[in-house]
Amino acid sequence: xxxxxxxxxxxxxxxxxxxxxxxxxxFSEQATRVExxxxxxxxxxxxxxxxxxxAEDNHSYxxxxxxxxxxxxGQVYAYRMDGPHDTRQRGTxxxxxxxxxxxxxxxxxxxxxxxVRALGPEDNCAYAMRSxxxxxDAYDWExxxxxxxxMADTVIYEMHVGGLTASPSSRVTNPGTFSAVxxxxxxxxxxxxxxxxxxxxxxxxxxQVLRSGPKGTPLRNYWGYDxxxxxxxxxxxxxxxxNCTHITEFRDMVKALHKAGIEVILxxxxxxxxxxNEHGPTISFRGQANEIYYxxxxxxxRHYMDFTGCGNAINANHPAVAKxxxxxxxxxxxxxxxxGFRFDLASELSRGAEGYxxxxxxxxxxxxxxxxxxxxxxxAEPWDGGGLYQMGRFPGKRWSQWxxxxxxxxxxxxxxxxxxxxxxxxxxxxxxxxxRQEGELPTNSINFVTCHDGFTLNDLVSYDHKHNDxxxxxxxxxxxxxxxxxxxxxxxxxxxxxxxxxVRQIKNHAALLLLSRGxxxxxxxxxxxxxxxxxxxxxCQDNEISWLDWDQAEKEDEVRRFFTEMIALRKRHRSLRAxxxxxxxxxxxxxPDVTWHGTRxxxxxxxxxxxRVLSFTLAGFDGDxxxxxxxxxxxxxxxxxxxxxxxxxxxxxxxxAQSAGQDVMAPADAVPVSGATYHxxxxxxxxxxxxxxxxxxxx
Length: 699
Known about the structure:
The protein has 15 helices and 30 strands. An eight-stranded parallel barrel has the order 11-12-17-18-19-20-21-22. A six-stranded antiparallel sheet has the order 23-24-25-30-27-28. Strands 1, 2, 3, 6 and 7 form a five-stranded antiparallel sheet that branches. The mean pLDDT is 96.
């Protein structure tokens, strides 16, 4: 190892391998002294070499940099920085005794990490996390690239990398890891989803103890919505992080999913970091450019603005921070072939330096217009924790948005609330009321009934109230209004009638989701009635409450089959996933693209406050069959008039009131319907397909 130090280059930021060594570059405008710490191993308590970066040779405007000859992949490193500690006026928090991670690090190691030691002014070198140099070129992608599945054809499966396989019931080799996800790909492929949306996989502090549970059990940060390493795959999801396998294991997962035709969407958290408020630990950003990375109160810059509920808020529209965010996203696409991103509390990224909403937020438009990201899916959670709500008006045109009104309206309708039919018609049609005025499309709507944040689908039909006592917050956390209904009994029951009703209600929710225009998202485990015991905020439950129970998956074949067949049905019928709003255009049989009904044709009951039924006819175009859908959320069965289509007869493909095997039919097994009406049982969804009278050729 030569070890010669030269000035190096300011760009790119991070630790970059060169033919002769490693170039290091880090951002800090106010630092007056920067030290690069080199460690012989990840377990070394002290650096073997400290390189002092000098302002004359190693400082170019915003960046501190150097090149060290002879270093290679696997090198463990970190920084120390000194500068003004003026928290009140300038907001700077330099402390030369704190060891700092590289914000652009491609991998980190937390073997020695002690979060408590990162608090206060004391030296924490022996207890700090460190970064690792990574060789990004030492991987065979075998020709892999992002899949570019059209948004209209996408079916998303939201899942937690650890929780997917952490349970012993998963029967995988390395539970809770990226590599274990690969073992579950055959299941995902059989289910038929086209994309997995991974809860945060950026490095986060999985050791952080939030509080103790009722029995004294330490409760930790499980979901991962508290990152510190935005360029680094989470250490806890690697089977061998000490050997710097982060990159390889993540890429292996992506490549395997792509081979199965499944895209990878990352849930990313650019609204806050793990450093928290003024009482939080110093990990990287706080000790390098606190006054730039975070929103600080102008009157007293010791204190952090908090639009996230997590102690701090990232100042995303500062040019240096916007650069960091966009380069991070482009890195995951370019180097890891990621297909898209879902942005947690994305409205926080609309805020300017003083915390107010911006009309044209540079970072959001930068993401939308980036050439590298031009074919990536970008999905916003269009609100934040500070009250900014941008549903249907999120900046930009390409952004899809989590459709909260879809979730709430469908839940209320299936529960049996009256007067919901107008809202349901809008949701089924792609939420034109929310998106059309902005010139957007149904594909801007991410439709969901459940997600990680809230009840599972099974719990939605099993509990009237949340049961979050295990979170140690006296059941005060989590949403209070869930629009749920327990079907007559709170929680588990042996009552066969209640169980049958719950299964039907689950199918009703699933059918509404998959029969609606927009992009459907399914919560992992909903397809086999996964339960969290009524906990609707399991962010701190790294245990059986949140882990998927694969024994349950084998036992609940009826519901799983229903989901599988409904996804396949959606893929067969373009009218269910058309990337446009209804416009009144007619097909070759003279049918408009949609006709709304109630129990009687063309009488949908828009103004009836007690209406609990809706039906509609979808015209098929370009050889697709016409469809007729019935939603009966009344508790009693009702007869629904059927439209007459010359030369065709109706056949039944879906009826959630039917027994297993008859609830959703393969095309070849569709059941002919006789007469001018169809009797839809109480609380059921029906789908009929029109077929020529002279033959029943399955599609």
